[in-house]
Design a protein that fits this description.
This protein is mostly helical. The protein has a domain of 46 residues. 51% of the residues lie in helices and 0% in strands. The chain has 2 helices and no strands. Helix 1 packs across helix 2. It comes from Streptomyces phaeofaciens.
Length: 73
């Protein structure tokens, strides 16, 4: 587990995760999996696409989760 990735669902966060928090977690995941902090120019497109895909999947996951005991607006 990457220690830089924080839990983005209640009650770990008092409010809904922001797009910036979701993207930051996706970036940390891609960095961990790829082994690169910053991609070389020839890998930049695939690296950024992976970050965006993972951020989208994360947002969908958070939107669909039902957390017992948490108030949903």
């Amino acid at each position: 587990m990457c220690r830089s990735i924080k839990t983005l669902r209640p009650p770990a966060l008092a409010e809904e995760a922001t797009q910036e928090e979701i993207r930051a977690a996706a970036l940390q995941f891609v960095r961990k999996v790829s082994g690169f902090r910053a991609p070389a120019e020839h890998n930049r497109e695939v690296f950024e696409r992976a970050v965006e895909d993972i951020a989208l999947a994360t947002a969908e996951l958070l939107d669909g989760l039902e957390v017992r005991g948490a108030h949903r607006a």
